[in-house]
């Protein structure tokens, strides 16, 4: 799979994404495009509109044209790649698709978005049935919405829009925020191990519902420890750290430590501190120097449901 898929899916419903409009959803609902997880399928399950699909499916067109769906990204950002998944669509997938992006301020209506200026991100490209199609995007601009166009009709199970978050942080002027939140522009830039799940899960919105929605490493046998590095939403002063081991009962780390990074400087934020399983921990941070990154060391291994680093932009 393409390297960009390691980046967060900015369109994901759990990040706040929404399918705001579609030309047609006669057979299967447009909201399925941005659901988390792999598409499911059960043969011979028929509703009043035909076979049930975990995806978006339009009617058979009898006139010239094409179908489309507009997705508001949960987090605006720079798009590094798009994944179009036609899983389970075999005799009803679209033979071609394209993707465009736009940057819209405020809270535009579907009609305003349709009238907006759109930029081509993925040109009209061939698709296969029941397959994932990865398309790299070389564009450094920030986008808030994407439009998936299928030519002429058919079904798409999932649309993934991977990239780097670039939210508008001006709304936090004078206020505190979670400097480690993915939706605020933070990103895990390095990690010792992601055997069971992605380290970016640790900075995702909301609470983890189960172990797979956090970050979990393999068992270490070498006497070392696991770690991840979070690039903060901006250079800032961390005042409160939340280290959450919820759902991790027999695989929680024994301890955690936090180190701030600012250029070549390393700044101790939290010394090695004991953790409990299945517990949200909160630690006040006394050091007030601004940092751009924070290294989270877990001792020796295990998992974290969430990491929150509350503070102020410098």
UniProtKB/TrEMBL annotation:
The gene is alc. Belongs to the allantoicase family. Signal peptide: none annotated. The keyword Cytoplasm does not apply. InterPro entries: Allantoicase, Allantoicase_dom, Galactose-bd-like_sf. Its EC number is 3.5.3.4. Keywords: Hydrolase, Purine metabolism. GO terms for molecular function: allantoicase activity. The keyword Transmembrane does not apply. This is Probable allantoicase. It catalyses: allantoate + H2O = (S)-ureidoglycolate + urea.
